Amino acid sequence: MKSSLFSFPAATLAIGLLAGNPASAQVVTNATQIQSGVYDVEPGHTQVGFEVLHFGFTNYLGVFSNVSGTLNLDPKNPSASKLSVTIPVDSVQTTSAKLNDELKGDQWFDAAKFPNATFESTSVRLSGKNDAVVTGNLTLHGVTKPETLKVHFIGAGVNALDKKYTIGFEATGVIKRSDFGVKMYVPYVSDDVHLRIAGAFERQD
Question: Does the pTM of the predicted model rise above 0.85?
């Protein structure tokens, strides 16, 4: 039997959404309505994207996946919230298999020696109704430096498929890879690395 894009339960979900399934209306977009608690990273829908300027010709993209971590969230007192994430470096992916292998090697990330990058928040400051500035310690390639992310809340609610309460954010930032000892081809491949992160978290009951 051939699989289909609209196989069950995908078909059921699609039809329900088209028909105005109440599940789609349960998502809130006001950060003050987020449920407090302890959340785990939902790795299937969390991506750490990066972009570098390649020899002045193209803005080249890549992504890390299989992220793990926790978020202790208190919407009524955001400054008390804490974020801790771990990113396996060998999850790096681009559109080039050869480059993927090079990036894992000792001239770049050296994944064998430094298998994980981590981020531990040290402060959370609201900058708008649905926005915050999160500062923390980023450890990459064996070096720890303070870095700052601009975080935007996207939505929260019960996932229609797995019935878990889920919240989602987008975060952006810029780091200098040479600060972490990753200097290969600087400045031909830009020292500035632009980050764009899709973060999904599930509340733990």
Answer: yes
Q: Find the radius of gyration of the CA atoms of the chain.
A: 19
List, for residues 90-113, the tens digit of each pLDDT value: 999 999 999 999 999 999 999 999
**Spatial CA neighbour of 80 closest among 35, 124, 130:** 124
Q: Rounded to an integer, what is the distance from CA 173 to the centroid of its chain? A: 11
The gap from C-alpha 136 to its chain's centroid, in whole angstroms, comes to 15
CA distance 99 to 109: 12
Fold classified for 29-203: Lipocalin (2.40.128)
Domain ranges for the chain: 29-203
Q: pLDDT class for 205, splitting at 50, 70, 90? A: confident
